[in-house]
Amino acid sequence: MLDHNPKCPLCKEELSESEQKRSDLRVHHGVPDCSVSLHIFEPCYRLMIRRCMETGTNRFGMCLEDRLKGFADFGCLLEIRDVKFFSDGRSVVDTIGRRRFRVIQHQERDGYNTADIEYLEDVKVEGAAQLELQKLHDCVYELGLVWVNSLKPEQKQRIEGHFGPMPPKDPEIQSSPNGPSWCWWLLAVLPLEGRAQLPFLALTSLKDRLSGLRKVLLFMSHSRHR
Fold first, then answer.
1. What is the value of pTM for the model shown?
2. Same domain, 61 and 137
3. Domain span at 92
């Protein structure tokens, strides 16, 4: 088994650039612009984290579990912000979501999955479509605020303690390849199963993502008033 050094343990040559850029995948789920704290117990994943740190990439991928294929075709690249190692072998990894990706092909390396990926980016719109998108954006943002403010104080406190407060509106809603950060914050805190979050991650249309969020928020609102 290779150790976590970026050089081959036998010939001491540097690993290829493509090998160092290959994204490592865990069977979990993350969304862009949101913090995720991971508790690592398995030796293969501790090795993976050490390799990410040693090579300087400080990034690895997370995908939702798939019963047939092992993991889903879409995921989120996480950036390591801090790692705490404990004497019993546990590690707590503080990360933040950065880029969405689609899995092209995957392999296994030393007990964990690796993959070749391509990044996803929202398609930008202009003219009348942009004006319509802005109106939809503002409408869904207000619905999100209403839902957050309808939570019980202890629920809201727990959410904000872990994820921070709901982000403000982005000045330019199409400036990020992932769209507005508040959308992903809502997806992270709404009571949705991972499989319900996955389609949002795969979308490259901000309009479709906002429309889906609006449906979820309206359903939550109607359920609350029954």
1. 0.78
2. no
3. 17-119
